[in-house]
Amino acid sequence: MLKQLGRLERTRNIVILGFAILMAVSLIFFYAPGRSASNIDPSKNTQVVAQVGANSITVADLARVRENYMRYTGGRMMGAFGNRMFLDSLISKYVILAEAERLGLSASDAEVADRIRADYKDSTGQFDIKKYKDAITAQYGDIEKFENDTRADISQKKLQAFLSASVNVSDEEVEEEFRRRNTSFDVSYISLTADKLAAKIQPSDEEMRSYFESHKNEYRYNEPQKKVRYLFINTEKAGSTLQISDEELKTQYDNLDPKYKEAGVKVQQILLKVARQDLDKQVEQKAKDLIAKLRGPTGEGTEAAFAEAAKGHSEDPATARNGGFLAAPFKKNPNKVNGLYDRTADMRVGEVSDIPIRYGGNWYILRRGESVPKTFAEAKPELLVSARNSRGYGVAFQLAQKVQNRLKETKDPQKVAQEFAGEAHMAAADMVRETGYLKPGDDVPNIGVNQQFEGAIMPLNNANDVGEVTGVKDGFAIPILVDKKEPRIPEFDEVKTQVAEAIKQQKAKEQLEQKAKDLIASMSGPGDLKAAGEREGFDSGLEEGFKRESTLGKAGAGEVIDDAIYNLKEGEISKTPIRVDDKWVILGIVKRENANMGNFNSDRDRIKMTMLRERQSQVFEDYIAGVEQRMRREGKIKINEDVLKQMEELEPAAQPLPGGLNFPIK
After folding, report:
1. Whether this model's pTM surpasses 0.85
2. Cα 385 from Cα 26, distance rounded (Å)
3. DSSP alpha helix (H) spans, 35-74
4. Which residue in 19, 322, 433, 473 is a FRET match for 51, CA 20 to 30 A apart?
5. Which of 638, 618, 630 is nearest to 87 (CA)?
């Protein structure tokens, strides 16, 4: 476990997410009811999964690790991972124990006792052994296991202290780290991806046929393909003539949560434009000075004072003459991020932003005003749509059931569509749709990748078999089988589009690096990058105020980008393209602002401690990885693959969402 957690400070979110998901899934395996009698309660199962030196790892050990992770995360996340990650963590634990013992660093009984006494003192400072045993039994389940884990933790800390004793960070390294963290850049970039280049490549018919002949098995259909027609009932149209009274809508309005009765909040702003890049710091300072005047001791400012400042300083004429107020109340939309105004929803009434806000190359100051209520008249159109959708769903579903019954009788989609078109408020031609030959996972026109639709056509094996009513985008579908093809290698024309795409991607990947080099050769300075990227159809942009560990637009983020940017001078372009995942990136430094060393002394100790911890963790992690490799070579680590495989086979498949009606989402 410690090996996986060694990079915690650098990869904390990924590790926690991965372990949390793994743990949640594991509990399904270990505690799912209905197992056969041959499957022992995993918490008591002593089958050995792995042997590390003299230590055995059992199914019960894995169960306990899983349960601990579940407790840690509260079981809020689920996922479909196996058991090997937990096994690897336990192997690392015992590798550490074995190495600590080899070096004479194992925790003694006295050290374990001292740790337990220190951790389990009562309020008077005394150690009560009965309370200790009761607490461990209740919280941990097994005193011996707990004390063994305490011994392992002490041994690990002793080994880590021994290995990291000589690790140091020089003053020069700390200063360089400060410079790297605090130097900012305005970076112009081009991000070259194979997809963009592939769009310009057109393989010949001869190339495609040749490629297909040599890759036929890659295009084999391993599952039957089914072609279906389906009758479609549109929910909105089915309910379009429903009459809903104002009284009903008013009742809905009165019962709404207060937050849904808000039209938004009043927002005042001051916009300070940056006419030239060299004036940026000056404009930012002006914004800071205004904020200092507008914010009171509580961070709030009066509406009148802000309005006066907006009229005198804001460079947005439309809002300045209106006291800085936006034309309409602002309401945060969870489905559409607004990088400038979303923050006002979380501010207090009267609060003024505490720092200038950089947006679109300019500086903003914001003040949140009062909430603006939404009257019944304003809410009525939304309520009417919602009510019609809700009732329309029921009407459409009932109609779809009648259509299904009639289709089973007639086996004629066209005839059934004509019979029910009036009731569905649709043209008969719009109700009848037909797919190509489908297999699970295909993207169906007007439906998309839809597991429920796939489930509805799965039982259909003979022509004219009719499937169940199924929720799809905007309504319901009732499928009828037209034809079925068994697993096979398709004809070239059936997969021509996929073959063309494969060739285009292959060629694009081969040409991408050279394309990046050609672009670099064609440019004279950072100012050329954005236009060159747009001209060639690649993602490009200018990222202002970029600092280490930031994201460089669509070019991404990471040490490779950070190092390349830091090593460039103002006015330079990267001499060669930089590989970032599956992209090639070209960089140009428009502006470089070196770190202000006046702040170095106050940050020195904190930076040094962070660097020291990271370096010590890396030394420990690398050392343990080496020990583990050696033990594997010497046969001191053995994994019982049969037991592990049996566990994985018993792992339940991911369960679908609870059955029932599928509510279409607008």
Report:
1. no
2. 43
3. 59-73
4. 19
5. 638
Cβ atoms of 291 and 353 closer than 8 Å: yes
Secondary structure (3-state) at 272: strand
- Residue 82: Cβ-neighbour burial (10 angstroms; 0-12, 13-18, 19+): middle
* Those residues with Cβ within 8 angstroms of residue 60's Cβ, 6 or more apart along the chain or in another chain: 42, 43, 44, 45, 46
At position 373, the amino acid (one-letter code) is P
CA distances from 413 to 232, 318, 418, 466 (A): 10, 58, 9, 10
Only one residue has tokens 């707990």, namely 146
Tracing tokens 């410079």 back to the chain, one arrives at 179
**Distance of alpha carbon 312 from alpha carbon 351, whole angstroms:** 20
CA distance 362 to 293: 20
Q: What is the secondary structure of 147-216 as a DSSP string?
A: HHHHHHHHHHHHHHHHHHTT----HHHHHHHHHHHH-EEEEEEEEE-HHHHHTT----HHHHHHHHHHSG
Quick one: angle between helices 376-410 and 246-254, nearest 10? 110
- In one letter, which amino acid is 407? L
Instruction: Look at residue 82 and tell me whether its pLDDT is greater than 70.
Output: no
- C-alpha to C-alpha distance for 264 and 559, rounded to whole angstroms: 41
Beta carbons within 8 Å of 337's beta carbon, 6+ residues apart: none
Instruction: Give all domains of the chain, ordered by start, each with its CATH number.
Output: 2-166+621-650 (1.10.4030.10), 184-214+496-593 (3.10.50), 221-241+380-488 (3.10.50.40), 257-374 (3.10.50.40)
Angle between helical axes of 529-536 and 496-522 (0-180°, round to 10): 160
**pLDDT category of residue 651 using cuts at 50, 70 and 90:** low
When the pLDDT of each residue in the chain is averaged and rounded to a whole number, the result is 85
286 pLDDT higher than 80: yes
Cβ neighbours of 595 (radius 10 Å): 17
Could you tell me which of 328, 331, 309, 330 has the C-alpha nearest to residue 320? 309
